[in-house]
Write a structure and sequence with these properties.
Elements (H helix, E strand, L loop, with lengths): L3 E7 L4 H13 L9 E6 L5 H12 L4 E6 L2 E4 L3 E3 L4 E7 L3 E9 L5 H14 L5 E9 L16 H12 L4 E7 L10 E3 L2 E3 L2 E9 L2 E7 L2 E3 L4 E7 L2 E5 L2 E2 H9 L13 E4 L12 E4 L1 E5 L4 E4 L9 E7 L4 H14 L5 E9 L4 H4 L5 H10 L4 E6 L2 E5 L2 E5 L3 E7 L1
Helix pairs in contact: 1-2, 3-4, 6-8
Length: 403
């Protein structure tokens, strides 16, 4: 049989009922008798145990279940965020095998968790093509007065995975989050509710994942050099205190009291070549350290000598998004696509980006009209950039799975 897919959605505030509604809707209008895989996304407003239990009651005992929480859910013709959104995608196929992996204990242990998860994946004997989808918990603790974004360390985790895997298969993924409350979220792994875990879905066999990065920012400055850094605190830029340097760059637009006023773009491509969005990854200073004049980034991978550009929002360039949608559809035009995933950074939503319309609507119109579409509003994206797999922000990823 060919792969069959169903996608369902609910905004019922009662968690058990929402799971029933979303799972039932996913199975409707399909001929699926036995599900091989279910992907479950929800916001953190739901009780995760009730939600998972109700989805399991609809799908039966055989389906593998994976997923987690985000700021909202996206389907073929519906979407919403910061409410009671739940989405379920159900798949049945004899073309691929489903392999699920999980490794816990993320806080302050990201590299080792990455190595352990990578070893699990590498040691799994499989046949055919390997396609890797990663789900990573972003927040390691509740916000405090000193730090409103208490996060794990995605770049270090990915370094550990790469060390264990050696070579990346086709890979995409996202960072789960509870939304803009910046609290730890929950993850779904078969019949378990987990926290502080990194999980992976490996689809193997006659299946192929194509993905494309949709960048949300554009360079707005020349290059500047980090000249002093202490772990995740940028202390100096071009030999000046980091806060002063950024204020000088921004001029009258600066606000030295802001805890999140700039985004740094790291160009992995040719420094003075044409602007190629997919060569850039973004790094976010989320607070300042006034006593040392530093910028505290949520990532810990910037080092002395790294060069960056200040980035500006580009979320309203819907022609660019349309072009990216059409590009990936052209990539799979000679294949048999059965599911598209849209991983959309929460910061791109219209309510936070001041755009006149939602970017999701473009994706639904162009891709959702042709392929079953499922997605989540993320806390960060895990994308292929210049032959490596990187953590980035303010972007979206379109993944299409084909036979």
């Amino acid at each position: 049989m060919s792969t069959q897919v169903g996608v369902g959605f609910s905004e019922n505030p009662k968690s058990y009922d929402a799971g029933i509604e979303a799972a039932t809707a996913a199975l409707a209008n399909t001929e699926i008798k036995k599900s091989d895989l279910a992907i479950l996304f929800s916001t953190s407003r739901h009780n995760p145990s009730q939600l998972l239990s109700s989805v399991r009651s609809v799908l039966g005992t055989d389906a593998r279940i994976t997923g987690g929480q985000g700021n909202g859910v996206i389907t073929t013709n519906k979407f919403g965020y910061e409410g009671y959104q739940v989405g379920v995608a159900v798949l049945a196929s004899d073309s691929f095998d489903v392999n699920l992996f999980s490794e816990g204990g993320l806080p302050d242990n990201d590299y080792n968790v990455g190595v352990a998860l990578g070893k699990q994946i590498k040691n799994r004997k499989t046949e055919g093509k390997r396609n890797l989808f990663i789900l990573y918990e972003l927040f390691k603790g509740k916000p405090t007065e000193e730090c409103r974004m208490n996060i794990n360390n995605p770049p270090t985790f990915l370094q550990g995975m790469k060390h264990a895997l050696g070579t990346w298969p086709r890979t995409s993924g996202f960072c789960a989050s509870s939304g803009f409350g910046f609290h730890p979220s929950h993850q779904f792994f078969d019949d378990r509710i987990q926290q502080q875990s990194a999980m992976a879905l490996l689809l193997t066999g006659d299946v192929e994942m194509d993905s494309i990065l949709v960048h949300g920012l554009k360079p707005a400055s020349s290059y500047y050099t980090i000249t002093k850094v202490d772990e995740n605190v940028i202390l100096e830029i071009d030999n000046k205190p980091a806060i002063d340097a950024v204020a000088e760059i921004l001029g009258g637009d600066s606000d030295s009291s802001s805890e999140s006023f700039v985004v740094l773009g790291i160009n992995r491509g040719e420094k003075f070549g044409d602007y190629i969005p997919e060569n850039y990854l973004n790094r976010l200073p989320h607070r300042i350290e006034p006593e040392r004049g530093g910028l505290v980034t949520i990532e810990r991978d910037l080092k002395e000598g790294d060069q960056f550009q200040l980035m500006r929002r580009n979320f309203s360039d819907f022609a660019y998004l349309q072009e990216r949608c059409e590009t990936i559809l052209n990539t799979v035009k000679h294949k048999k696509p059965f599911l598209a995933l849209y991983l959309d950074c929460s910061g791109r939503a219209s309510a936070y980006s001041d755009t006149e319309r939602e970017d999701v609507e473009i994706v639904q119109q162009i891709i959702g009209s042709k392929i079953p579409l499922f997605g989540i509003y993320t806390g960060g994206e895990i994308a292929e950039i210049r032959g490596d797999v990187e953590f980035t922000l303010f972007n979206s990823i379109i993944c299409i799975f084909s036979e």
